Amino acid sequence: VGCENTTGAADAHLSYEEIPSVVFSHPPVGTVGLTEAQAKQSYGEDQVFVFKSQFTNMMYATMEPEHRPQTGMKLICAGPKHVVVGIHIVGLSADEMIQGFGVAVKMGATKADFDNCVAIHPTASE
């Protein structure tokens, strides 16, 4: 955007909607898009679908269960096509995962798009 504006190639504008953000804590927290409450306010309660997942990252699979850190993810979808309007992650690699998910949200990906992806194995982002 900056280069296009500087060279006069285009009158480009950056959209500040759906920009991922991260809290670099232990564990990290990543978020992009709407919260569940914001989605319900925007789309109506009956048009918002929430999918939650909690998992152990593969690098901890051989540890004793009580020592395995968990990662939690929440996908906020809206409308009949379940367009992903928000993603929230707490856990190892949340800071890395949210970058790619930010692109997906910006492009209007659906829950089906996410379900049809084959992730790199074994990684947290799968």
Explain this structure:
- The chain is α+β, with helices and mostly antiparallel strands and 126 residues long.
- Strand 1 and strand 2 form a beta hairpin.
- The protein is globular, with a radius of gyration of 17 Å.
- The chain starts with a helix and ends in an 11-residue tail after the last helix.
Tally of contiguous helical segments: 4
Low-confidence stretches: none
Mean pLDDT: 89
Main β-sheet description:
5 strands, antiparallel
Give the strand line-up of the largest sheet. Answer: 1-2-5-4-3
Q: What integer value in Å does the Rg equal? A: 17 Å
Tell me the fraction of residues in β-strands, as a range.
25-35%
Give the helix proportion (percent range).
Answer: 25-40%
Order of helices and strands: HEEHEEEHH
Basic shape: globular
Which class best fits the helix and strand makeup?
alpha+beta
Tally of extended strands? 5
Task: Give the N-to-C terminal Cα separation.
Answer: 31 Å
